Fold each of these.
Amino acid sequence: MEKFRKAYIRTYGCKQNFADSEKITGLLLTIGYDITKSPEEADLILLNTCAVRENAEQRVFGNVGALKKLKEDKPKLIIILFGCMTQQEHTAEKFKAKFSFIDAIAGTNILSSLPEIIEQARLKTQKGARIILKEAGADYDSFDESVKPLREGLFSANVPIMNGCDNFCTYCVVPLVRGREVSRTAENVISEVKNLIAEGRRDILLLGQNVNSYGKGNSENTDFTGLLRELDALEGEFIIGYMTSHPKDCKKELIDFIAGSRNISRHLHLPVQSGSNRILELMNRGYTREKYIELAEYAKEKIPGISLTTDILVGFPGETYEDFKETLDLVEKIGFDSAYTFIYSKREGTIAAGFADPISDEEKSAWFRELLDVQNKINERSYERFVGKVLRVLCLGEGRSNPELLTGKSRQGIIVDFAGGEELHGKFADVRIKRALPWALIGDLII
Ligand code: SAH
Ligand code: SF4
């Protein structure tokens, strides 16, 4: 098909959103669009939005405002907003009222309707945006196996294995905007991963809000460990990563399986959110501090060198400094390789939005800085455990900061830079680690 129109997609938020955008990109190619990296050049602009925190939302509002000028210069330009933020009707209405130049506002489950939404926008007769909201998550249509995602990069790929979430942590908007949990069939996931490996991709990341409950509700009997077992057995050398694991559902049997596997990543992203039992209960997380520590210690013992990373929420409504100190204590006890830290952001429609929240923003920011200081100190030394050791590294190409070096990824998901030739791109190599930086390792190729 002749390509005569150009589309620009901007994605906010998590890896799941980026994976959805890759699928949308694949679909756009089939209906006559080429992709451009420049909004000025585009005939169609799509913004795939995020609702997890207020600052992500504010960025979208700012960026949409800036598109007004482009639309004035090019009245035929089509602007479509979609994703988690616009799945909430009150936000969709807010956009419609504030930005009359938007053509359509859709939610999270729109892949199959996108050609029609674009066509309607092109033929547009009405003034103001059309709002198209489908039930979040029901028959999640981004799993339409007939649309092939267009992926960036040569050697890595993100593969969503499920959508939505059934956990209802009291602070979190995800179950409201992505709907109930739905898993792809194991057959479809395995077939996609097989094809990716055949294409030369070796760094595969399985995505889900709670990968440990993968398969729930599917008629076939494959749970997450079963899925990993089948993927691990595929021919060749590759790394299968997975995120996010939920401490309440991540079982020791899974860790035992990973410990004995060939190709499953030794990186476990296990969000703790808080180190205080009182706060964990208010968050509805379903585990205690003691259970979390036990699980993390078990993983460290069974999988030597494992990289444990986490998410932490600071300033949950009702959190006291005493509670926060328990989080600091847990962070020091475990020694995460990295922690994604967030200040609590009130989300309309969640249970915690109704909780009293007496702590000031200034105080929360001070706690947040204290947590960063503690984590930064841990980062200064955490990778030292690898110095002198040999790691198996997948070479992903030239180094970003230093093109003289190659950059790669270890089985622990850690960046490793080393000197070597172009012939190593996309291949595994053994690298002896000589230096640890807070965010990467430096080593020498073993020949
Ligand atoms: N499903 C994953 C994470 C989903 S959202 C899990 O269960 O851990 C990613 C991270 O954003 C969360 O781990 C949490 O730390 C953070 N987050 C979620 N809701 C938030 C809110 N209302 N305010 C601030 N951070 C939030
Ligand atoms: Fe949100 Fe909790 Fe579900 Fe993660 S598990 S997406 S934090 S509700």
Amino acid sequence: MIGATPGSAGVQTYGRGLEGLVAGETAISAIDGVRGHLLVRGHPLEQLVQRSFEEVSHLVLFGALPDADRLRRWSAELERFSEPPAPALAALQRVPGTAHPLALYRTMLTVAACIAPSVEQESDPAWSRPARILSWSASLAAAAIRHLAGQAPVPAASAPPGHAQRFLFQTLGRLPSPEEARAFEVSLVVQVEHGLHAAALAALTVISTGADLGSAVLAGMGALSGIRHGGANQLAFEMLAHLPDVDSARRFAREALARHQRIPGFGHRVYKCPDPRVALLEPHAVALLRARGLEQRHEVYRALRDEVERALGPRGIFANVDSITGLVYHPLGLPPSAFPIPFCLAIQTGWMAHCLEYLPHGAMIEPGAVYVGPVN
Ligand code: ACO
């Protein structure tokens, strides 16, 4: 669309949803939305799924995979912040129990950010701020999820080592099996970074004003919660859960497509080809579903996906990561309303990396607008 701003010399242009607009340079990730590739700090995502969340979060935040000593210290730093401030946990009791778990967890993180004695002090080592946010977030999110079932928080002190395992232990109140822990960790790794998507840009806009990293993450959380973005994995699973068998999945898809209904878990702003994260998660979803005797759910998912992709694939609409994460989180025992939370726990790593990359030289973000109103 093209328009002219009265009083300005040139013609200003913009794309719908800022499409095609480049917001800056980054060395963090590159997305090929035509061939379906995601490079994180130069590493293909396919290689990173073999690694732990600690290794990959270090890579995303600090630019390189850690050697053994740095990995030990980064893991210890994450563990150091696994007990969030008590008033943040207590805030759970003050928020209506009907609130969405993402809102509960966001509220708790807001309280934690107020209490942190040295949140953004210059003396903080560069990695303490992201470590604190990642680890507090995981413990607070676990407490928010347990709160849905009226269960008390599980202290991190009794949890096994490892960020993914710790979150699962604090959420489920039991030790996850190695398959569960691995599947969950892979889900974190594939969702750890994804360029300047809407939530990352929200975080970047906030940090560009000189605000603190916690505020930037909170802004990202707000943007992620929408049903077109990170909220879609809950809707995608709820849709699937209503489909008892393959035939009803095919019928549902055909009817929804005939009504031009937007089907959650399909389509992407960047990928106009299969989302590579789906294929990386699918074997883990299948393994967890099979272990719980729920493999039929995967068949239903495949039937729905085949039907939708046959119709919409030629238009560049394929299953996205939100279509499949529920098939990992449900057999783990998470309620569907909690599904956006692990996505948030993972991708806030990328938001913080973009903020830290932007900070040294970035200007305050303030795009213009094409004026289309009257001139009186
Ligand atoms: N189901 C059916 N049709 C769709 C879908 C879908 N999931 N997504 C897009 N379309 C159709 C639209 O109806 C529209 O059709 P039209 O041209 O006949 O009007 C056309 O495709 C283009 O739609 P846009 O919204 O312009 O496509 P865009 O690429 O901008 O949208 C988005 C991307 C917002 C993700 C969209 O595909 C969507 O709403 N998907 C469902 C929600 C979802 O799964 N979100 C998660 C995305 S992944 C993530 O953020 C982590």
Amino acid sequence: MVVFDLDGLVLDTETLCTSVAAEVLGKRGVALTAAAHSAALGRTPSDAWAAVAEAAGLAAAAGPELLAESEPLLRARWGEARPMPGALRLLRHLASLGVPVAVATSTPRASFERKLAGKCELRGLLTRCGASVACGDEVERGKPAPDVFELAVAKLLLWRQRQQQQGPEAAAAAPGEGDDGDDDGGARRLAEARALLPRAREALAQGRVAVFEDAPSGVEGALAAGARVVVVPSLRDRGAYPSSPSVAADVPSLLAFDPRCLGLAPFDDLVPSSSLPSPPPAAAAADDGAAAARPGPPRPRGAVPLDPPIRIAGSVVRGFGRGSRELGIPTANVDPDVLIAALAEAVTGVYVGWACVVTRRDGEPGGDGEGGSGGALVPRLAASGGGVGGEEGPGHPGGRDGLPPGVYPTAVSCGYNPQFANAARTLEPWVLADYGPGVEFYGEEIRLVIVGYLRPEAAFVSVPALVEQIHADARDARRALADARFARFAGDAFLTAGTGGGA
Ligand code: RBF
Ligand code: MG
């Protein structure tokens, strides 16, 4: 049995919560500090706002006020929350294996419904076992108490009991299996599930339940319930997470999770990348220390397909200047504000994708990437040679500085560059083309369709070892992008359309 947390693990609600929290705190002249964020993560809304109020040094009464003020703002925006990368893939895999899944969330039932409204496949996968969803308003104590995890398991046991009594079809279609805890059927089912709590605790104690969590309070609750825990941290502060032998895996992204660590069949969707031997192992991985200390089974060489791919457009900003000067790897750093809006703070890793650079034709110097303002945006090629399958070679018309237009294979690094312990997250596409000297993208708009995940970010024994790994990533990117599953995205309308409207 596998139990999923929702917020920050399956759904990117973090970005929304952070923006609304900043808004309501801002009115009081207070900023959302890392400590407040960390204290609130994973908790029920009233616990979360109480923690934020306390961390911000506000009066105790501010907690309920902040809750009341934020609730309508969030309610209107839950639909915007996107699935976290790798969540659908994992849920599809578990469904194909017939592994029962449940949800244990701090969110109240009504918010759960709003967050998943319109996300039919995700909702279907999360609720396929008789809607075994335990919500924050169905238990006395929220996380870090174990209650909501125990209730989720009890709901799964109830589903299984019904299946055995009535056969699978009847259990799936049983009346009263709606999710609404308010109607009589829902209330009766909740009572029936509660009656199974002792058996749920037994199953947990026997190690038959794995929980996926992103928040320290959730990890604590899952461990207290006796579950094996897969930690996919939303916070960079490793010290915030309890450690325990019951932590089955600690991965920076669901995309890096290998089901074999729970004794399940591996994924079979990897797009083959480099045929070369694996690069030298990382000495340490600052952004996933626990995972590095406990290496799992060897990772197969290949890229994990992102479905849907991640589409990002933004202006190119100056990075640390390290890329080209120190490493010989000229990355075209994307505007950090675009990155913050597009991908949850916790999303990091090395990816492969397609890129094109878009130039303003009407003499607009590009500036701050206000896509759509000013003159027409014309896709052009970033550099010469090495285009799609080598077809965009010399002689292709257009572009300035002799750089023909086109779409290029790209290796993308997203994260905190643990080798250099950066404080801020960067999105650094390395457009794989033959750069002439002095080619600059600064101020221009880059469009990216990120289609595959290669590996977690890491720190290496030395900078040359990092550079060697980055070159291996580039080879992996070229090889994987030649596969039909990735190659087709070179023609993605997001890249080829001539108008703005990116980010
Ligand atoms: N930086 C790291 O600290 N760890 C990495 O694992 C890492 N992987 C990268 C992979 C690729 C394909 C690229 C283009 C960059 C990577 N970087 C990584 C970022 C690199 O450190 C960065 O480009 C320079 O520090 C310049 O800012
Ligand atoms: Mg969470």
